[in-house]
Prior knowledge:
Strand 6 and strand 7 form a beta hairpin. The protein has helices at 51-63, 73-76, 118-128, 203-212, 216-221, 242-253, 270-279, 285-301; strands at 11-16, 19-21, 31-39, 48-49, 67-70, 89-102, 105-114, 134-141, 146-148, 163-165, 168-176. It is of the alpha+beta class.
Amino acid sequence: xxxxxxxxxxxxxxxxxxxxxxxxxxxxxxxxxxxxxxxxxxxxxxxxxxxxxxxxxxxxxxxxxxxxxxxxxxxxxxxxxxxxxxxxxxxxxxxxxxxxxxxxxxxxxxxxxxxxxxxxxxxxxxxxxxxxxxxxxxxxxxxxxxxxxxxxxxxxxxxxxxxxxxxxxxxxxxxxxxxxxxxxxxxxxxxxxxxxxxxxxxxxxxxxxxxxxxxxxxxxxxxxxxxxxxxxxxxxxxxxxxxxxxxxxxxxxxxxxxxxxxxxxxxxxxxxxxxxxxxxxxxxxxxxxxxxxxxxxxxxxx
Length: 302
C-alpha cells in the first residue's frame, strides 16, 4: 500500500489475488472472474486498510462503473506521458463480496469481467496460462477515516506503523504483477467450473418451453435411439430452519463440499456458500444468495 500525507490525494493498496474464471463461451461472451482484493493485514510499508472501509464504499465504487485497469495507468498514466490512458481500462467490477477469513484476516473481493480489447486480451491469455496476477486498490482516504500511526500506535491495529485507513472513496481497481503487499494467502489461478451457474435452467422451465413449441408430446412418445442414462444428480435438500442451515456447514461444507470450506478456493465465504447452494442443492442464484448470507450471519453469531 502506498499512501500520501494529504487526504486530497489518492492512495494505492496492492494485494495478491484469487481469480476464479470461466473460459469465454463459444462465439464470445463475458469473461467473468472473481478477485480477492484486500485483507486486514499490514503491508510492507506499515499501512492497513480495513474491510469495513471497502465494504462501506462498495456501492459507490460499483455505481461509478467498477473500473478495472492495468497497473493504475488509466488513473496515473497521463503523468508519465502515456497517450490515451483510458485504453488501459480492461474490465468492470459488478459486485463486492466478503470472502470471510483466511489465516485470521478478513478478506474482501470483487466479481467482474474483462472486456474484449487488446490489453484485456493479454491479461485473459496470461491468466489462462496460469500466470500470477495481483490486485491494487486506488482510492482517496476520507478526512475522518485516516489514522496516523507514525508517532502513536493504534490500539486496534498495533502492527501498523504508518497509516490505518478506516474510510475510503474507492475509485478503481488494477490488475498488476508488481504488488507492494503480499498479505493475502491466495495466489492467482483460474478455476474451470463444471457448471456455468449463470445459464442454469430448471426442469420446470424446460418442460414449459417444450410445451410452448408443441414438442412435449412428441418427446414423450418418441422411443430413444440411445441407451438411457439412469444416473441423476443427487442434490442436497435446502435447509428448512436454522438448525438445518448450520448442518449444511458442519456436515457437508466443512467436510466434502467442492464449492466452500477448507479445501475450496473461496473457503468460508458468502461467495463459496452461494456456490454450494447452487451446485449442491440446485437453488437459483437469488435464493442461494439469501441462504449464503443467512449462513454467514449465523456463523458470525456463534
